[in-house]
Amino acid sequence: MLEVREESPCRGMVEEGDLLLAISGKRPRDIIDCLEWGDAARVRLDLRRGERDLSRAVRKEEGTPLGLVFDEPVFDGVMTCRNRCRFCFIDQMPPGLRPSLYLKDDDYRLSFYYGNFITLNNLGREDLRRIERLRLAPLYVSLHATDARLRSYLMGGNARRGLEALERLLRAGLEIHLQVVACPGLNDGEALRRTCGEVLARFPAASLGVVPIGLTGRAPQVAPGLVPFDGGRAAELLQTVREIQERSLEMHGRRMVHAADEFYLLAGEDFPEAAAYEGYPQLENGVGMARKFLEEAREHAAVKGSGEAGKRGLLTGEAGKSVIGRLQASFSPHGFEVVVAQNRLFGGTVTVTSLLGGRDVAAALRRYRPRGDTLLIPESLLREGRFLDDLTLEEVEEEAGYRLLPTAVNGDCLLEALTAR
Description:
The chain is of the alpha/beta class. About 35% of the residues lie in helices and about 15% in strands. It has helices spanning about 30-35, 110-115, 125-135, 150-155, 160-170, 190-200, 220, 230-250, 260-265, 290-305, 320-330, 360-365, 395-400, 410-420, and strands spanning about 5, 20-25, 40-50, 50-60, 70, 115-120, 140, 175-180, 205-210, 255-260, 310-315, 340, 375-380, 405. Helix 10 packs across helix 14 and helix 12 (about 360-365) packs parallel to helix 13.
């Protein structure tokens, strides 16, 4: 147990570090069980504190939460993925990264808590009943194709079962967001038109994000035959998405389908206006991040002015340099320095900033020495102080010879950090 909240009815009976064994005689599988079973007015908690087993009777108003914070949302192990997706990014990853990065989860509980995308292919009847009964939503589902044969070819496993589960959960009125990982020559073009058309008619989800396949330097060995998007294919896909959006507006009064920022960068097209993203439902999937970032920066500058960036620079990946370039031009009189890091960790066509490793950052700073002594980096590069390649922030700072300042990835925070003295 990570924390007992200040307002918790368990305060004084439960301590940080206690192991929760049972709630009213039932062993919880996850936080969802804790929330459901802990709603009662009288709850018995069985705990383990060090070497001792304890029992505590909690009395409270019905519906009052237990107020316990856990370090993980699931206690019985993560439901792992049994699919064999041809384009799986994890299969393409090099060795030596953080161990957690190699975990293939297909767990509806992590989709509910964190927005992880799942396939629904491996859910049993009890899982589906539980999702419906507890109204566990929103959920995020990897669709890829609505044609069962094509979906099976792309994913392997029980692709048809996943489609049936999706239809059932949508009929139950649950909020579900879909994604299509588009692979040139497989599920783009006419196949994408059919998929999106069926989503509009048969699977009316909250949103559908179309994202490009990610291929690392190991793709030729583990994902043979797959190719990345180029500018021409990206432009064709964007035209398809626009056509589907028009149909969706007529049928449902909303666009529903949105393309990832990478497609606009590859095609050399401007991003849609903020309103076209309809509240950014797939922001964490790289859909609308650039437009939202630019809007936040514009609003910040309108209120506070752009000012001068002083002695701080900014690091970005290759995909982000054109977006940052627009921001850089608004500064006076000399803008701010931008360091563009190439992804040597994954290689291939991986250009997004969030997938840079610590060694990529250090290598970029060896090639280009900024004038200042502080470089802003997106905080999304780090998890618990470590980069993807398991280097710590301090190790990269020592190797690079610069202070690295992790900053929230939004326009307002970035401008504030750039102009700070």
